[in-house]
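Before drawing any conclusions, I looked closely at one protein, both as residues and as discrete backbone shape codes, quoted below without any editing:
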Amino acid sequence: MELFKYEHRKLWRRKSVQIGVLLCFLYIVIFGGLLSYQWFTFGSQDDFTSSFGNNFDGYSNIRQKQEYAKQWESDLTDETLQEMVKDYQAQVQNDESSSYEMTDWKSLNSWVKILWPELEKADEPYLMIRYVDPTQLTNFEERREKALENFLDINWQTDKEKEYFLNMDEEVEFPLQYRWTEGWAFITSDFISGCGVVFAIFLAIAIAPAFSGEWHNNTKALISTTKNGWRKLAGIKVLVSLLFALELYAIIVCSSIFLQIVFLGTGGADMPIQCIKLIATAPWTVLQAEIYEYAYLLLATLGYTGIILLCSALTRSNYVSLLLSLAIVFVPMSIAQFLPLWGQKVLELVPFVGDPTDIFRTNAYSLFGKTIWSPYLLLTIPVTLGIVSLPFAIRVWAKRSKI
């Protein structure tokens, strides 16, 4: 325990770790969270050319939008959709951005474009919901089912995968329960998925010197004469690194959830994810989606920590260890677009390379004749890779000590 506490203090006392955690907090929690809620994303708009033109009134603007959306919170039927579109068009007639910005126009326009593409006019520069005749917006559920089937046909799905996702979609309850979508869309489609790359950078900065740093500090002779020995010290370093990863995760995630509750509240947690992406097939609510994405972030964090430790054990240079660790994430991201589909799917199983927003998609893996929805593997494989890396990291470092 004494050695564990010493290694833990030593890690946190490094200036690079302290600065890294501070920057991570500032970037994700302050810039990506607090300022996005209050300014960039949810501030009322006067200047549509830039998010920096928004007003610094996100908290009150969110409350107004939530209150405005309550009049539509019910079953999403043809009649409800028509009334929402009529209301948007009436607000546009006021010729004031503050009027129609209160409406859930992003989701509305997305639904109409997906389900009634024949109503779109190529020569119209405006949103479809601005000129479409609301009375033509009928057969919502039937058109969604048809749109999903068409999407699966053109998305290179095999017949087996298509059947798999259609069976999954049958568990979705209709009519959909509408709630204000903009806030939950920000959380589940943008914010959490954007945390992965940032976590990867600062985890690598903090943990990459775990083993290689001992060579950098010329402490080989000292470690060789201690009563604990190289292998026991290696085990302590692994535990300290995993604890640091959990601490960083807790600091960022707890702060982010606190801001979410303060600004968005908890209303609408029972809304199905289909209100955010209409042709999603998972029978999940947005709260379940958020829980999954944070679980993915946690397990990817632990998995990546194990891989960083292996990179650190393989080299005696802090800089080489850092570059190797970052390359594990950023090289696959860079080359994925040039690979065939199967190659992209393999790379997505590397921690932080995949995307937790796959819960909105129809991506699948075929293993041993079975179709497996990609979010299941994205949750398990990254952490498995990290666990497998740990004994190799300990063994490699212990062997190098004899050289």
